[in-house]
Amino acid sequence: MKRALSYASTLFCGNGAKRAFAAATSIASETCAFANDGPYGVAPMTASVPVPGSTLSPLPVRVTIPQGPVQPSPILYLFNGFRMTSSYYKAYAQRAASWGYLVVQYDTPFFSLPTVVQEMDVHPALHAWVEAQGKAASGLLSGRVAAGTCATAGHSRGGKLATLLYLQHRAYIKACFLIDPVDGSSQSPASDPSAAAALAAAGAAVGMSSAGRIGSCNPRASGSLAFWAAAGPGSWNSVLSNANHACFAQAGWLMNHAFDLLCGRSGLGREAAQQLATVPMLTWLWDSLSQGAGAAVILPPTTESPDPGFKEWYAAQVESGLVKPLEVKTPSSKPVAPPEEQVVRAPQRMPLPA
């Protein structure tokens, strides 16, 4: 392990970042299940979903399906960043599906610029469609949908949408994970309602992975810092030390450079950033959903907690300098002041076991 981690002292750019990342994960991944693909193969499905009364209808939907036994799978609704597409988050979708999640994504017309409220209004029709596909006598999703056990996740503006839908549909959305979320920026204009304000008012717990580099795409006043200030007790936040806002999405060489021009240079590669965000995401979702129905199909073939392996894996990333120590809020945590006001929270969830 010492030899593996010795590479982590290299500069976090170019090949140095790749060497550091490979070294830090090469051994730790042996004990951390979610650092590897799960036992299921995955298969894609695309569809056009009608949304009555919406200008976004028909909605182009992408579903990534776990190819295991035909059994109900929890749904992960995964939302894109502003002006990004679902294909940029393929790594998250495939890893999650390999561990038993039915991952649902969609795209909106590039020039349509729908408001957050418009997208929130689309969700009930989308969820109803997924549920109906699961109840159908035949089809790729037949018998594979656990419609009452769902989670949301999203990057950038998608994190805002994931938060608002989580708070609005708690009856079936049981968990939420945010990837460098943004309420609004110069690149993604703010629109009411504010997800950070709603999160603070609810006192709800969320999991987060955040960029260590703050820029125009993830400003201090409305980016991950604001969401972390608003998050309730039990929340986690994993900060990727040298990541910029855009490196959580893999858009291809040309678009990656374009996004970096907008968001600032990253000291961490896309593959590394996505891996470092995916492992905490899957651990958070397992911990959250294991408190209710559906846990057995998330981590097949056992429901053994992933926390011990995750802690060992995460400690290796901290030692390498790739991430900062995991921030965990407890009911007794000192309140974190958001940019403009203090918030009051109620306990929702216990922290990662010691």
| Strand coverage percent | 15-25%
Task: List the secondary-structure elements in sequence, H or E.
Answer: HHEEEHEHEHEHEHEHHHHE
So what's the oligomer here? single chain
Helix content: 25-40%
The total of beta strands comes to: 9
Low-confidence stretches: 1-14, 293-301, 338-351
Alpha carbon gyration radius: 19 Å
| Euclidean distance between termini CA atoms | 22 Å
Major sheet attributes: 9 strands, mixed
Helix-strand category: alpha/beta
Mean pLDDT: 84
Tally of DSSP helical segments: 11
How would you describe the shape? globular
Strand order of the largest sheet: 1-2-4-3-5-6-7-8-9
What does it look like?
With 354 residues, the protein is an alpha/beta fold. 35% of the residues lie in helices and 17% in strands. It has 11 helices and 9 strands. It has helices at 2-6, 14-26, 90-98, 116-135, 157-168, 195-202, 224-230, 253-263, 270-289, 295-298, 307-320; strands at 41-49, 59-67, 73-79, 102-106, 145-155, 173-179, 207-211, 236-240, 327-328. Strands 1-2-4-3-5-6-7-8-9 form a 9-stranded mixed beta sheet, with helices on both faces. Helix 6 links the parallel strand 6 (173-179) and strand 7. Helix 6 (195-202) runs parallel beside helix 7. It is globular. The chain starts with a helix and ends in a 26-residue tail after the last strand.
